Amino acid sequence: MTKKSMGEMSFLDHLEELRWLLVRSTIAILICATVAFFFSDFIFNEIIFGPKDPNFITYRIFCELSTKLDLAESFCVKELPFNIQNTAIEGQISLLIWTCITAGFIIAFPYILWLLWKFISPALYEKERKYAKAFISIASLLFFLGVLFGYFVIIPMSVNFFATFTVSPEIKNDINIQSYIGMIKTSVIACGLIFEMPIIIYFLSKVGLVTPEFLRKYRKYAIVLILVVAAIVTPPDVVSQIVVSIPLLILYEISIFISAVVIKNKEKEKLNA
């Protein structure tokens, strides 16, 4: 089978398709944001402020693990001594709007992926266009896993560290609400997108920009980069960095396998051509 001719659409046609992709994505996000607005009490009280509670599930799990490993309950959270405050007159309204938009983006992500697939599908082989459901399902799963990883792992460790860190007992932690929620939004969205690494490697391998040999050759540099990222997004302790690094390293190895499969299939297609 051959690819659909890209010459069937002019450059302006492609720009028009891209424009409608952005318009439809924006509409989907706004619709989902509207739905999120009706659940804003739950989003704020149970989700956003969940990691502020010492009884949050992540803290309990870490405490149980540290006790079983004879770490003298070093990971048990007794209290989180900080307050959250709003300092801008329009702060809470702005906060509500942008939080709902962020929630709308997360909820609408599978639909955005479907729109993206429709946009790039003309450049794919016909048999590859049949994999739309698999692409959307896997990419959505990876994104939501990343969001959950950011929320249940990255955020609790960050909140615990920054809430208990102090340079002087004279200084009290009254954290700005924009700063607190900004950290949460950045963590979950960034982790969600980072977990898309295998999908990105798949398409880069399809167009010949990445090979498994390239990924293996630069594996040691990738490991260093992953450790640096883990050190940036986690508190400065070895255990936290290892917890964050492990899934990223696994994703990198999965990406190498995916790239190898793509290259192998491309070579088979050349032989059968």
UniProtKB/TrEMBL annotation:
<feature type="transmembrane region" description="Helical">
    <location>
        <begin position="242"/>
        <end position="263"/>
    </location>
</feature>
<comment type="similarity">
    <text>Belongs to the TatC family.</text>
</comment>
<feature type="transmembrane region" description="Helical">
    <location>
        <begin position="138"/>
        <end position="163"/>
    </location>
</feature>
<dbReference type="Pfam" id="PF00902">
    <property type="entry name" value="TatC"/>
</dbReference>
<comment type="subunit">
    <text>Forms a complex with TatA.</text>
</comment>
<keyword id="KW-1003">Cell membrane</keyword>
<keyword id="KW-0472">Membrane</keyword>
<protein>
    <recommendedName>
        <fullName>Sec-independent protein translocase protein TatC</fullName>
    </recommendedName>
</protein>
<keyword id="KW-0813">Transport</keyword>
<keyword id="KW-1133">Transmembrane helix</keyword>
<dbReference type="InterPro" id="IPR002033">
    <property type="entry name" value="TatC"/>
</dbReference>
<keyword id="KW-0811">Translocation</keyword>
<feature type="transmembrane region" description="Helical">
    <location>
        <begin position="21"/>
        <end position="44"/>
    </location>
</feature>
<keyword id="KW-0653">Protein transport</keyword>
<comment type="function">
    <text>Part of the twin-arginine translocation (Tat) system that transports large folded proteins containing a characteristic twin-arginine motif in their signal peptide across membranes.</text>
</comment>
<feature type="transmembrane region" description="Helical">
    <location>
        <begin position="217"/>
        <end position="236"/>
    </location>
</feature>
<feature type="transmembrane region" description="Helical">
    <location>
        <begin position="183"/>
        <end position="205"/>
    </location>
</feature>
<keyword id="KW-0812">Transmembrane</keyword>
<feature type="transmembrane region" description="Helical">
    <location>
        <begin position="95"/>
        <end position="117"/>
    </location>
</feature>
